[in-house]
Amino acid sequence: MLLAASLVLKALALPLLARIAWLDFTTQKISNREVLLLLCLGLGSLQFVSILVGSWWDMGLSALAGLVLFLALFPFWALRKVGAGDVKLMAVMPFLTGGGGLAVFSLLLLVFALATALIVKNPLLLPEGAFRFYVQHLDRKGVVPFGVPISAAAICTIAFQIAYSQTH
């Protein structure tokens, strides 16, 4: 029952992550409200897992990973290389994916970040003219909506966790 409750909270994060990706792509903004909601869903999910297994290890690992990510990305925000919303969103991801999902999330983030960079630098790879024009505009402004690959990696990680729990 506790595992199901944990997975339900993670599943509730999926549409929110999709919304964050869309808003970051269109407006280059990630709201604090949405990041806080993701944090609450992640903490709730981790709480259920911690009670189920009788250990707070995953909660502690997630908190440590979130702190490390925040501290590692903060200088890039100070140098205006990434947005504050991107830094906060990344710091929340370990809570949402859990300590066990960090490796999968990291690999997926690498793939999606490279794909995003490739698309932004080579918009001619895209099929639709209007979309291509928009990405060229983003490239000229020097803005990359990093919330999109973060959200995509989190969505895929959570989907993998849900699918894996159904088979075991």
What's the helix and strand layout?
Layout: H1 2-27, H2 32-53, H3 57-78, H4 84-97, H5 102-121, H6 129-141, H7 147-167
Description of the molecule:
With 168 residues, the chain is mainly alpha-helical. It contains seven helices and no strands. α2 (32-53) runs parallel beside α4 (84-97), α4 packs parallel to α7 and α5 (102-121) packs antiparallel against α7. The chain is globular and about 50 Å long.
- Tell me what portion of residues adopts beta-strand conformation: under 5%
Chain-averaged pLDDT: 89
Low-confidence stretches: none
The largest sheet, given as strand count, sense and whether it forms a barrel, is: none
Order of helices and strands: HHHHHHH
Tally of individual helices: 7
Cα Rg: 17 Å
Would you summarize the structure shown here?
With 168 residues, this protein is mainly alpha-helical.
